[in-house]
Design a protein that fits this description.
By secondary structure, this protein is mainly alpha-helical. The protein has 27 helices and 15 strands. The longest helix has 20 residues, at 585-604. The mean pLDDT is 89. It comes from Cytobacillus oceanisediminis. Residues 9-135 form the TniQ domain. This is TniQ protein.
Length: 605
């Protein structure tokens, strides 16, 4: 058993056990610790000896310190266990967090006071926050890792003096700020970190999340944006010491920075982590990472990470949100659903859903994942369509509001006199849809064009007017345009509400009808039955004249009912009257004009 040293010294602020023992040895004229404590000299040469875990050397050292009445707590890494692990520690845990066989240091700190700081053995600390420089973990000259026995001698085996090293690189501002957070939470009592929108994290809360996220990023591809830290390049993350990549200052700077980002900014960085974990699972399906992530979201402040995870999934177009079993998202309104889910939401048929998607009323996204097609529909487009159904009416309803027949209503829509929101001529959708307010606006426009109804004998109903020119090229929509442009006066019967009660001024209507017939005679000519009336013969005679070449068909068209309509020009009829009926040219013109008036008059009967 080692006797109590003659020269007693006191530990310095934040000094490590190894450093304190080394200074005791020097104070008592030993060359180094090994010569003072020969029984454990081999261990003291190779290990840092700053953590108690039941090794043989501990009994010798603790006996010595007890004889000196030294409180060992502040000298040991063990007093950080509560902060890092909540008190319960597994061997695997402390080996990742505490360095045991090699050290790192700040040359400026050693110059100011030569002793080894206990927190330098914490793997997550990579920067001296006092001098704002990266710590050094290899000999600047030979690049060998540094042992505790060598740093206390201030000399490498290659002859390099550690304290003569010039200041190394300064970390970027983000790294420096994160290192200050880690340092303050460990070394300054009652320090907390505000997690935006959640609350204050104690050091136990913070390191619970930091170490769990460090575990999650372990072995992931280090070339992703999450690990873009101070221009440091790492191929793969090595926190657990399970791969061969060096876990040096650079590696631990990337790990501590990335893990901190995930702790404080999950809304920004968690998506990158989830994608990397998904890729990792494809290579290692047995991974425990999702179990670790579940522990995070099930914890005290886990809701903030669950929210970010859920938000990512509901915005994802490459998978069904319900397919995650290990870690399920929160029950929130989805942003994308399957076609069958959308069908239930709209209480519609499969065929209707297909049409809604085809014509763009529902927005569907298709993604090919691993050769499999995943089709999802935007819930927002379903909501828009629901609102559309509430705010729109069908063509049948439009006809009921306006008093038009279905055929007439369709003509009004095709001429855009009544504006449709969706339909065959708008976007290809097979059904016409209208905003009710647009139909109400149309009826107000009609009423605004109307004049007072005085002598009803001077007017005919819209229905009768349509009947009068059913054999012309005009239709009801054309007549409505004449009303709107002022060519034809209109009025509504007292108490009338729609076009069923609309009256058309006879004189204006006759003028329009005469003009239309004149234009038709000039452009197309007489129908064969009209030519027969003018010539006082049977239609068969007119057809024979055409067959013989005496008349030529000047125009032909197909009636809506499918009948073929043939015309002979006015000039041919006039020439025939002159040649065969021995009329003078002027007499023939008067005769044809009289026929036109008779035709108009007959139309009005």
């Amino acid at each position: 058993m080692f006797k109590r040293p003659l020269n007693i010294i006191k530990p310095k602020k934040d000094e490590s056990l190894y450093s304190f023992l080394y200074r005791i040895a020097l104070a008592n004229h030993y060359e180094h610790i090994g010569s003072m404590l020969k029984e454990i000299g081999t261990t003291l040469y190779s290990a840092n000896c700053n953590y108690l875990n039941g090794d043989k050397w501990e009994r010798v050292v603790l006996d010595l310190l007890n004889r000196m009445s030294v409180n060992t707590r502040s000298l040991l890494l063990n007093h950080f266990n509560v902060s890092f692990f909540g008190g319960k520690v597994e061997e695997f845990d402390y080996r990742r967090v505490y360095n045991q066989y090699h050290v790192k240091y700040c040359p400026e700190c050693l110059k100011e006071s030569f002793y080894y700081r206990i927190y330098w053995d914490i793997s997550l600390i990579t920067t001296c926050v006092k001098h704002e420089r990266y710590l050094i973990d290899r000999c600047p000259k030979c690049q060998k890792k540094i042992r505790a026995s060598r740093i206390m001698r201030d000399k490498c085996t290659c002859g390099e003096i550690y304290t003569s090293t010039s200041a190394v690189d300064r970390p970027d501002q983000e790294v420096l700020e994160i290192q200050k957070v880690i340092f303050q939470l460990l070394m300054e009592p009652d320090t907390t970190l505000n997690l935006k929108g959640v609350g204050e994290l104690t050091e136990v809360d913070y390191f619970f999340y930091l170490l769990h996220f460090a575990d999650l990023i372990d072995n992931l591809n280090g070339e992703e944006d999450l690990f873009d830290v101070d221009s440091i390049m790492v191929k793969k993350v090595n926190f657990s010491l399970r791969n061969t990549l060096p876990r040096d200052i650079k590696m631990m700077t990337v790990i501590s920075t990335a893990a901190h980002r995930l702790v404080v900014s999950p809304d920004h960085y968690l998506v990158s982590l989830i994608k990397l974990m998904d890729d990792f699972k494809k290579m290692q399906p047995w991974t425990h990472k999702w179990d670790v992530f579940k522990r995070i979201i099930d914890s005290k402040f886990g809701g903030v990470y669950h929210d970010a995870y859920t938000d990512y999934l509901i915005n994802l177009k490459t998978e069904h949100i319900n397919q995650r079993v290990k870690v399920k998202p929160k029950k929130v309104k989805k942003k994308y659903v399957t076609k069958s889910e959308a069908t239930k939401m709209l209480k519609s048929s499969h065929e209707t859903m297909t049409n809604l998607i085809k014509y763009g009323l529902l927005v569907q996204h298709e993604t090919i994942v691993d050769g499999k097609s995943i089709k999802l529909i935007e819930v927002s487009s379903i909501d828009r369509y629901k609102k559309l159904r509430e705010e729109t009416i069908s063509l049948q309803s439009v006809c009921k509001m306006t008093g038009l027949t279905f055929h007439a209503g369709k003509l009004f829509v095709e001429k855009d006199i009544i504006h449709a929101l969706h339909g065959p001529l708008v976007d290809g959708y097979p059904n016409w849809l209208f905003k009710k307010k647009d139909i109400e606006s149309f009826l107000r426009k009609v009423k605004k064009c109307c004049v007072p109804l005085e002598n009803e004998d001077d007017w005919i109903s819209l229905k009768n007017a349509y009947f009068r020119f059913r054999h012309t090229d005009l239709n009801l929509s054309d007549l409505m345009l004449f009303v709107f442009n002022g060519t034809c006066k209109a009025a509504i019967k007292p108490g009338g509400e729609n076009l069923k009660d609309l009256m058309i001024h006879k004189e204006d209507f006759l003028g329009i009808l005469k003009q239309i017939l004149e234009e038709r005679l000039m452009q197309k000519g007489f129908l064969l039955r009209e030519a027969a009336i003018v010539l006082h013969c049977d239609v068969k005679i007119v057809k024979e004249l055409i067959a013989s070449g005496r008349f030529a068909v000047s125009f032909e068209e197909t009636h809506p009912n499918g009948d073929q309509m043939l015309f002979v020009s006015k000039v041919q009829v006039k020439d025939y009257l002159i040649a065969e009926k021995k009329m003078e040219a002027m007499a023939a013109d008067r005769y044809l004009d009289e026929y036109l008036y008779k035709l108009v008059a007959r139309t009005m009967k």
